[in-house]
Design a protein that fits this description.
The chain is an alpha+beta fold and 182 residues long. Helices cover 51% and strands 14% of the residues. The protein contains six helices and five strands. The strands form two sheets. A three-stranded antiparallel beta sheet has the order 1-2-3.
Length: 182
Amino acid sequence: MRVDRLEVQLARDQEDDGLDGGQSREAARTALGCLEMAVDGFEDAVGLTGPITAIEVPAGERLSFLIRRFDKHHATVELFLRSFAVELCPDFKGAQWRFFETSTGTVFMVPSGYDSLHVCIDESRFDARVSAEVAGLILSLYMLARLCDVSRSQEHMRMLVRLRNYALTNAQATTIFRILLR
C-alpha cells in the first residue's frame, strides 16, 4: 500500500514544525526512548529487576506480619485465602499457613501439612495436582486479586504485580500461568 504525500492546511494559530523524514523518525525514537525509561522505572518500582527471593516469616510473627502488611484488611486476607483454598482445592481440609515475604515486598502463603494439593479451576479447565508451594502461590494470587477489588488499594495492586513477577521465577511458572491466563 502506498500513501502519497498530502498537503495539510494548518489552522490560523498552528505552525509547521518542519519535521519530515529523518527528523520525525528521530522524534519518534526519542519519544520511545522516554517510554523505555518509564517502563524501566516501572519495572524497578514493582521489582522486576534482579533475582527475587522469598523468606519465611517466623511462626510467632505471623499476626504482626499480617497487620503490618495488610493493616485493617489482615483478617480479610486469611478469610479470602481459606475460601479460595476450599473452593479450588477439593482435598484441602484446613491448615495452618506458612507466610513468606519476597525481596520485592510482596507476600504469599503456603498451606502447611501438604506436599501437594489437587487444584481444580473450572473457568480455566485446569484440573491437576501441584506442589503445596504452587498451590499457595495460586491461592495467594487469587486472594490478592480479590483484595484489590475490595480495598481499591494501590499498595495491594503493587503486591499483586510483584507476586505475579515472583511466580514467573518459579520452576512451575508455566503451570501457574496456564491456570491464570485461560
